[in-house]
């Protein structure tokens, strides 16, 4: 779910820019000659509509890397795949393109959590501003609260989609397997497979089964957001010092975004591996899962799926930076269009 958090981070970036103070915004505009679109300048209906379409398009593009990352993290050692590219070609040969999109339709429901994240972020940020004007404090509290709400929606969807991801070559690594009459590969059976997995999870674990790994998810994605922001600003600042004065700010953002995403992915990957195993293998203890992972595969086991995670997050970050700026321009309120020059 690193992808989801990258999307959510950029959805609130314009708000953070506008809250950093008029003097700072003025200096940036003077230095780069960039007109910053403030949050209140946007037509929210266009913003959310275009945003959903853009997010869906990017999600479809990077989903295969997410599926590969999950299988790599759950497998024992290199019992099935030797690495990211080995997994890609093996899945493609054995299961076809459809195999790279197992669980995709279910996973698209996480778009709901994106809207919940944005709404919670804005409301909590506004509330915290009554007590503190520090932008860092507001971002941390609002971001943490938004992640809590978003993960409450995302985890059940993740649990179901990850079980579907593990079918095919990886089905022996999971507790649940599709009935033979639902694994025909026909399009009309997609939601039949989903209902089959949901029924098995509920029969085995009850309602709590859909929130397996909830704590591990919070320990993965809240720190991921916390790490991303400072590194994003750090890289952007360093690149700004190195770049020519007339270099477009968007190019610097497009470079800083993937650097921050790769850094955040590296820092939080160990917990992401633990989270995946808790959710797929049905474990209940985060600590015990961590200990067993170290015992069986050593500390290198904590890097499982890291390359796939970076591969998916890097292009996502680039596309999101460029796409988000375009999204803001398209979502500008009609009466302000003529007053903005690009």
Briefly summarize what is shown:
The protein has helices at 2-11, 13-19, 22-32, 44-74, 84-99, 104-107, 111-128, 135-165, 190-205, 214-242, 249-281, 286-297, 306-330. By secondary structure, the chain is mainly alpha-helical. Keywords: Membrane, Transmembrane, Transport.
Structural features, described:
- The chain has helices spanning 2-11, 13-19, 22-32, 44-74, 84-99, 104-107, 111-128, 135-165, 190-205, 214-242, 249-281, 286-297, 306-330.
- The chain is an all-alpha fold and 342 residues long.
- The protein is globular, with a radius of gyration of 21 Å.
- It starts with a helix and ends in a 12-residue tail after the last helix.
- Residues 17-34 have low confidence and may be disordered.
- InterPro entries: MCP_dom_sf, MCP_transmembrane, SLC25A44.
- It is found in: Membrane.
- Solcar repeats lie at residues 45-127, 134-238, 248-330.
Major beta sheet summary: none
How many strands? 0
- In round numbers, the mean pLDDT is 78
Oligomer: single chain
Assigned CATH superfamily: Mitochondrial carrier domain
By CATH reckoning, the class would read Mainly Alpha
GO molecular function: branched-chain amino acid transmembrane transporter activity
Pfam family, one: Mito_carr
Solcar repeats: 45-127, 134-238, 248-330
Subcellular location: Membrane
Q: What are the main properties of this structure?
A:
MCP_transmembrane, single chain, 71% helix, Mitochondrial carrier fold, mainly alpha, 13 helices, transmembrane, 342 residues, globular, 0% strand, transport
């Amino acid at each position: 779910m690193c992808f989801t958090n990258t999307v959510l981070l950029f959805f609130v970036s314009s708000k953070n820019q506008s809250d950093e103070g008029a003097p700072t915004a003025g200096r940036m505009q003077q230095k780069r000659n960039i007109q910053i679109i403030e949050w209140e300048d946007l037509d929210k209906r266009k913003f959310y509509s275009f945003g959903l379409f853009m997010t869906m398009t990017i999600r479809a593009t990077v989903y295969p890397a997410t599926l590969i990352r999950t299988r790599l993290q759950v497998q024992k050692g290199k019992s099935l795949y030797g690495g990211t590219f080995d997994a890609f070609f093996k899945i493609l040969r054995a299961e076809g393109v459809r195999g790279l999109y197992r669980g995709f339709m279910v996973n698209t429901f996480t778009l709901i959590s994106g809207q919940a994240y944005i709404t919670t972020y804005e409301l909590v940020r506004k509330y915290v501003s009554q007590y503190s004007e520090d932008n860092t404090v507001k971002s941390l509290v609002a971001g943490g609260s938004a992640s809590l709400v978003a993960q409450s929606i995302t985890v059940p969807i993740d649990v179901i989609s990850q079980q579907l991801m593990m079918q095919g070559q990886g089905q022996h690594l999971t507790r649940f397997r599709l009935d033979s009459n639902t694994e025909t590969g026909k399009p009309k059976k997609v939601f039949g497979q989903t209902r089959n997995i949901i029924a098995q999870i509920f029969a085995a674990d009850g309602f709590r089964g859909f929130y397996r790994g909830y704590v591990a998810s919070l320990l993965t994605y809240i720190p991921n957001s916390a790490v991303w922001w400072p590194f994003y600003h750090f890289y952007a600042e360093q690149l700004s010092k190195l770049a020519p004065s007339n270099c477009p700010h968007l190019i610097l953002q497009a470079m800083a975004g993937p650097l921050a995403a790769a850094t955040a992915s590296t820092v939080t990957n160990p917990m992401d591996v633990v989270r995946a195993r808790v959710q797929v293998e049905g474990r209940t203890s985060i600590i015990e899962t961590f200990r067993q992972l170290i015992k069986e595969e050593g500390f290198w086991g904590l890097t499982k799926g890291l390359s796939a995670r970076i591969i998916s997050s890097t292009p996502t970050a680039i596309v999101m930076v460029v796409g988000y700026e375009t999204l803001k321009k398209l979502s500008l309120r009609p009466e302000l269009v003529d007053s903005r020059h690009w």
